[in-house]
Design the sequence.
């Protein structure tokens, strides 16, 4: 399995970190974990084809995690050369409860975007799956498991493939469900939005993340979804994590790559 971080940041872009996006390759299966602003451009710059994506796993519907889903859905109606595609490959989209209403509201029932339905017929090449808590989905040798996150109805995902595993938290406050989902995972990709003294909203700081890592005991933790306030202060995050549990710590930037 291969992980490439496309967007390791928040809604406020920095030179190193932009809105959420994580590309995972598992054999023939190509997954996009969240699809925030700039993800398509990051894929282009790394020569990753959006036409070859098997599935998008959305964790929740905040703009920094979903905004590029609209250009992606429209793009799939074309060929890589930019000509109309008569038989686009199917794109599966997984997301929490509300996924169908989300696209229904912003595409089908939106007079400005509804041409993506009426003209491009995006539904003919897209399948939508609202994941159930602890739902398990298997395709192409991948076993996908979802669990509730603590963040506006969001979910976290676990991917098992070929004897290795990865968990992606999306946005979340400390969540026992996530710890359960991630127990013993090889790679834990977890958000750490703010330093402890500046924590805002349903997120975790380095202090909570250290506790999570000690409970999960992963081989590697990839820290993502960092707000700009972390820039230049990442060493504090790493030292707090290292005091809690010894494992490989990777503070993600756009383009961070890992083979699992
Ligand atoms: Zn969020
Ligand atoms: Zn976010």
Sequence:
């Amino acid at each position: 399995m291969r992980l490439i971080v496309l967007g390791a940041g928040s809604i406020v872009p920095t030179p190193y970190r932009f809105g959420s996006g994580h590309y995972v390759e598992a054999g023939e299966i190509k997954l996009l974990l969240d699809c925030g602003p700039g993800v398509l451009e990051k894929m282009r710059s790394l020569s990753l084809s959006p036409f070859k994506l098997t599935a998008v796993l959305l964790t929740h519907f905040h703009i920094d995690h979903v905004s590029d889903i609209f250009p992606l859905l429209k793009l799939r109606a074309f060929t890589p050369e930019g000509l109309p595609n008569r038989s686009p490959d199917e794109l599966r989209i997984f997301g929490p409860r509300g996924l169908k209403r989300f696209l229904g509201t912003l595409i089908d029932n939106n007079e400005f975007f509804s041409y993506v339905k009426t003209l491009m017929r995006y539904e003919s090449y897209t399948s939508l799956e609202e994941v159930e808590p602890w739902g398990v989905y298997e395709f192409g040798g991948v076993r996908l498991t979802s669990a509730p996150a603590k963040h506006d109805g969001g979910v976290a995902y676990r991917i098992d493939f070929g004897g290795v595993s990865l968990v992606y938290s999306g946005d979340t406050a400390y969540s026992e469900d996530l710890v359960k989902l991630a127990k013993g995972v090889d790679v834990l990709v977890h958000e750490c939005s703010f330093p402890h003294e500046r924590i805002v909203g349903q997120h975790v700081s380095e202090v909570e993340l250290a506790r999570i890592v000690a409970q999960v005991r992963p081989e590697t933790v990839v820290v993502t979804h960092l707000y700009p306030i972390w820039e230049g202060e990442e060493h504090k995050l790493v030292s707090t994590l290292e005091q809690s549990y010894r494992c490989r710590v990777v503070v993600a930037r756009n383009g961070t790559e890992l083979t699992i």
Notes: The helical segments are 39-45, 63-66, 69-75, 99-108, 115-118, 176-182, 206-216, 234-244. The first strand starts at residue 2 and ends at 7.
